[in-house]
Amino acid sequence: MNRYDAPVREMRFVLHDVLNIESQLADCAGTPPQREVADAVLDEAARFASEVLAPLNAVGDAEGCMLDKADGSVRTPKGFRAAYAQFTESGWSGLTAPEAWGGQHLPEVLGAAVKEMIDSANLAWGTYPLLSHGATEALKHHGEEWQREVFLRRIVDGSWTGTMCLTEPHAGSDLGMLKARAVPDAEGTFRIHGTKIFITAGEHDFTDNIVHLVLARLPDAPAGVKGISMFIVPKFNVARDGTIGERNAVRCGALEHKMGLRGSSTCVMNFDGASGYLIGKANRGLAAMFTMMNSARLAVGLQGLGLSERAFQNSLRYARERVQMRSLSGPRSPELPADPIIVHPDVRRMLLTQKALIEAGRVLVYDACLQLDLAERHPDPELRTLAEARTSLLTPIIKAFLTESAVECTYHALQIFGGHGYIAETGMEQLARDARITTIYEGTTQIQALDLLGRKVLANQGQELGRWLAEVETACAGASTDAVQAGFAEALRAAARLLGDGAARVSRQARDNAEEVGGAAYDFLMLASYVALGMAWLRMLAAAGEPSAHCDAADKHATADFFFARLMPRAAMHAACMGSGVRTLDVANAALSAGT
Amino acid sequence: MNRYDAPVREMRFVLHDVLNIESQLADCAGTPPQREVADAVLDEAARFASEVLAPLNAVGDAEGCMLDKADGSVRTPKGFRAAYAQFTESGWSGLTAPEAWGGQHLPEVLGAAVKEMIDSANLAWGTYPLLSHGATEALKHHGEEWQREVFLRRIVDGSWTGTMCLTEPHAGSDLGMLKARAVPDAEGTFRIHGTKIFITAGEHDFTDNIVHLVLARLPDAPAGVKGISMFIVPKFNVARDGTIGERNAVRCGALEHKMGLRGSSTCVMNFDGASGYLIGKANRGLAAMFTMMNSARLAVGLQGLGLSERAFQNSLRYARERVQMRSLSGPRSPELPADPIIVHPDVRRMLLTQKALIEAGRVLVYDACLQLDLAERHPDPELRTLAEARTSLLTPIIKAFLTESAVECTYHALQIFGGHGYIAETGMEQLARDARITTIYEGTTQIQALDLLGRKVLANQGQELGRWLAEVETACAGASTDAVQAGFAEALRAAARLLGDGAARVSRQARDNAEEVGGAAYDFLMLASYVALGMAWLRMLAAAGEPSAHCDAADKHATADFFFARLMPRAAMHAACMGSGVRTLDVANAALSAGT
């Protein structure tokens, strides 16, 4: 009942018409992303996602994963393992990885479209290969040559998967508090001791081996985040020459019983003197972790997008099929016993909210991935630096906003289904449950907001924000010559001004009271998000004007019109909240000081 | 881990200090609600809710209900049945029912506080007695004398429960489409045929008999809502003299597998020629249904409030206990390895959002119940009419807003728990899942919005809205004399003006295009809700000024300050959306017209 059809035409519109990836990446190293290649990848991925993965989504939720307490093995839901075999056979696991390690080195922006499809089709299944991507990044940037040869090659070809072992029961957002220990041993390796929780795909039956990337402290390491190192801890020991050894002392001790994402194994991992290799420099594990984390944060933004898309598709179909009541201005389908509910303005509001958020969100996250490609592959170092700064600015916005949007979109989609949406069989409630983790893992919305305002804006005196806002202004100026778009540009300009002013004000206020940053961060991020979406809409309209564009121009204009009329007013609301300052949120405030 | 402590002091503050129920109801018929009686009821209910019901909440979710397909019986979760026995033994089932039928006839406003506690403690359990209240109202107002004697008395003493059988697979919001048939038989009774779905507490093991109130069509009844009649269909036949007869031909055919509220049996009920009595006039079933529905809608608003309260309590406790990272301005608890997360401004924002919505929401819904009492019990007919009009205006606001708030509050509470909130053991995700039905059943938010703007405002030329807004203005004028509150009054006045202007504008626009009502309804309701909350905050501040008030005045002022600074800006946002008109939502609009 709950279907998924990959929105390939819309993806082509974004990749080719809005972002022009072919010309943008023409000078880059690696396989040139020819349009035909990109289109073939999209078609193949669409088939795999909708035909293989999508039908397993409900099964995965109903079955969940099973831990065998005796040997610590985990059985994944029926069909998951076989789907992964197809995935690796088709070469999907190495899509964007370097050719040197067996990958196809296609651009990340194309990989983003493929990830979106996987996430729409089956978010839980998608978490197993997901962390391999982060591990690839960490090994690529921080691994020694032999580590890449031994581990990266197997991760790229999909025969092993990776994990990120960060969180401990008492150390979530605050990694500085982590306690896992790494003790050097006689062989030049390390013995890892400690318990990690919430480890996605920590144990499963997809592959013979699993490569855990683990944060732990060396003896006498400084306290806090400056004393964290990263280690490679394989499930089965692997010698430097690649020989597989004995079962390592790392085991899954329990699976979490979660609200959603039940097909994904979320593990408590016990390290009882497990053997591991240091990766990167001692006490520099946080830097290596952030390499994985940035990629993972964009990937979680894509999860939000993917869930929203599936929710939208199904609620749109239902709204066209379900008949209930007549339009207020008289029957629209007199031949039916009632009108399809899509005629009711508030149903349309809920559908268009999803559509406007999704289409602009797709431009945002694909663009950030394109900037990643440029940052890594472009020959011009200055352009690489600028691209790096841009993706760095956009990453917290994308991670936080696209996941908050997923909560909102799955909410609207379920609401459109009414009571039927609350019942498992329509699949809508699963989407809402699955979405709920995305605003939390890989750094909560709150952490993203502090990252954006603190590190990405204030720490560099708003330099990259300024450059971005100048581009927004250029886009507004361009749109102002069009009679219809002039109004959109005006609204976007107003929001951008609120954002720039807000950043300047918080920067001043923070000199007297650092808490002002914390009081403004959330609303600053949301305001920045609506500016980013508005910008994305202007870019889409510019692209939609071309007759060859992969879109219906009238549909794009009407959706943009909805966005600026019905969603952009949120920008001023967030600015007003931010403008009220930290006063009402201060810890010295009388509210919350008494018991309940 | 997930606890509930009834906020008795806050309830006293609302009942005694804000609403002055003792003096308000002094002239009314029935038991005078003396303060001592009210307080004793609150204390007893608090004990029952937190000690008996709250511990069964997680059990109910984990176990759910079990249908025996052979005989159609339903087994409720362990402990539920015993708790109901305690409930009836203590006389809770007849708390507000007329003394003539065995009730205690305490005011509904006091019953509201008791319901809130039950809903906080165990929403699923609370759905079993919930519908009895609606059935009581229907029988009281529309039943024949013998029907009251036979059925009402048993429902009031709790030995039987009631249901509302409205929805059919193809007829949810649109009751005019329902197909269930009622055929007169030789005995002067009727034979009911048809299938009803989503029937809350349609079958269970709490009581020996269940009294279904069923909507069905008589032969040759007019089409649509004017051809609907209501019937009493007991699980076991009951003769006019009260004699219990054979098992009636009504059976539970299936239980729904739901996102949440799993301890509540949601039944498919099959009527295969079940014997029933007509209640009220033929073809006037909708009026009788609305008697039940209005009471049920306020009850669902209370469910939203109850869930929000429990979510708030637990997230507040967690925010005080969980230590993670330091305050941006330096350590607040240097003796701990990190600061409690309540020091972080955005955690405080999420807590205060809940607090501000809950405390004002409580005033709103209790006040509506007080108006119900006045409408029914006050000797002055003019005052009765005014009270009736007021509760009628507020009911859709309360139903929609308090349930949307529950979605928001449970969202924030889960977010504060981070990854731990996504795990079943903390109980936070259950609250979020349970909350998700409340914006749907007893009329979706969309239906409430149309009811408010269409029936309650435009249909009477905004008369009651105008009277209410005049009271808001009086409150603003009163508050303006206070230096601090003057700012709050200004913000409320601005929102009230937007609401009044909005109503006037839609009224004009609707003459040309009826769709404008549908395009404005949702944002109109949300805007009206923030006006209502602002008014509630001014009322609370006025009451908090009294030294004898059951509150901490500084806490109330700080929370009000937060409300006007950080939540009231939503009012202007909704006004802006509403102001954009139905244009972007029109069915002729190009968006949504193409396939995805």
Supply the key terms.
596 residues, alpha+beta, Butyryl-Coa Dehydrogenase, subunit A, domain 1, Butyryl-CoA Dehydrogenase, subunit A, domain 2, 3 domains, 7-stranded mixed sheet, 11 strands
- Cα end-to-end separation of chain A: 45 Å
Structural class label of chain A = alpha+beta
Biggest beta sheet summary of chain A: 7 strands, mixed
What's the quaternary structure here?
homodimer
Q: Count of helices of chain A?
A: 17
Radius of gyration over C-alpha positions of chain A, nearest whole angstrom: 24 Å
Count of spatially separate domains of chain A: 3
Mean pLDDT of chain A: 96
Note the run of SSEs of chain A as H and E.
HHHHEEHHHEEEEEEEEEHHHHHHHHHH
Helix content of chain A: 40-55%
Which regions of chain A have little confidence, pLDDT < 50, spanning 5+ residues? none
In total, how many beta strands of chain A?
Answer: 11
Biggest interface between protein chains, with counts per chain?
A-B, 103 and 103 residues
Characterize the overall form of chain A: globular
Strand content of chain A: 5-15%
